[in-house]
Each structure stands twice: as structure tokens, then as C-alpha cells.
Amino acid sequence: MAASTPRATIIGISGCSSSGKTTLSRLLRAILPDTQIIHQDDFYLPETQIPMKDGFQDWDCAESLDLAGLRDALVWARETGEAPAWLVSKEDQNTVAPSGVEDELVARLRDRVSARLAQSPPPRRIFLVDGFLLYPPTLAPSPLPHLDTKLLLLTSLPALLARRARRSGYVTLEGFWQDPEGYVEAIVWANYVRDHAFLFAAGDVDGPVIEEVVERLGVKVQPDRAWGMSEVLEWAVEEILKGLSVGGGG
Q1: Would residue 72 show up in a list of annotated catalytic residues for this protein?
Q2: Which residue in 47, 184, 226, 240 has a CA-CA distance of 20 to 30 Å to 108?
Q3: Does 250 fall in a domain?
Q4: Is 91 part of any domain?
């Protein structure tokens, strides 16, 4: 029996926690037509099931997530073109720092996308999957088979510490979470390094990627760590248009 025709294009936007994924996703939603966001953070297990590590509740590991639920949501979105009715997001209750992106750039990119899609319109709705843990192939079940385009944002530990310090905390299923002292270094960054070392030469997440690995997985990596959100946004728009098989340029 032939597989049904997908009714959605699904785009992964991943990177370390506080690398700019949610900010980028919201900007892209304002630029791309008929686009919704699925937040991996909406698939956390109840707080009582979050594992402990080094004296901290570890919210930044695979064991804290309902990966099967995320898989089911992506399958549903692909097959129906709709987000599952049971998926009620809490993520939009969390604040995001100002993006620093000028409204003029957003408008210009929206016009660029409209012009390019007029030549070759996408036949399907677009879903952006905003998640800190999407690409390690050891995840079970893995989101990888359900992602058409895969973007990876890069950051550094000093930038991560500065961004987390600007956030008041995070809405959870049961209440509100604030980082305990030392949590970012011991959990957030340490887990990111462990889970993404396979993409980088000598396992150094501050160094160059291993080209054959990212090419095999189809992961598009932010080319320059020093970029601000404006540069990241322009790059992401171009990579998404390529994934939609829309010609370059413009």
C-alpha cells in the first residue's frame, strides 16, 4: 500500500538551550506563510519524573522528555497538516528577550519569501520544531526521520550564561522553574557538549563541525558563531527556501 502524501513540511531548529531557537522560530513564523511552531519543551515529563544529576533536577536530557509523544505529534502533523488537538502549548507563556532584529529586515525577508514562493509555492503547511535535543541519532524514538530541513544554531558558554541570566525563569507543567546556581555549567552546557560532540572535530563544540557527519544527517549548521540574530535569520530563511526546493538568489 502506497504511503499517503505528506501534508506538512517539518523543519527542525535546534541548538543548546538559550541559543536563540525560540526567538528564531517566532521570527520565521512571522516571515513564512502558513507556519506553526511545535516546541519540544511542551513534551517534558511531569516534574516528579525529571531525573537527578549532580544534585540538580536535569531538565536538559533525553530522559526528561516524552520523545514518543513528540514523535506522535510530528507524524500527525505530517499526515494531516494540523497540530494535534491534544497538544496545548505552555511555551508561549515564557518570555523571550527582544530579538534585536529590525522590523525592516523582517518585512524585507517576508517580501523575499513571497516573491520566491510565487514562482514555486510550497504545497504544504510548514511546522517549525523548536527543540534543544533533536539530532543525536541515539535518541529513541528519534525525531530525525520526521524532519525535512534541520538547522543547528551555535553558541558559546559565555553567551549562554549571559542569555540565561536575562531570563526570569521558565513555565513548567506544575509551576515555574528558575536556574539554581551552577545549573547552566553543570547541566545545560555539559549535556549539550555530551549530546552534540559527535558533530564536531575532536568532540569540541567550540571547534569545526565534521562535514561528512553533518552532510550524512542533513544538518545545516550556523556558519559563523559570531553572528547576531539578524544574520542567523537571513541564513535560516535561505536554508528553508532551499529545502522547499525554491531557487536561490534575491
Answers
A1: no
A2: 226
A3: no
A4: yes
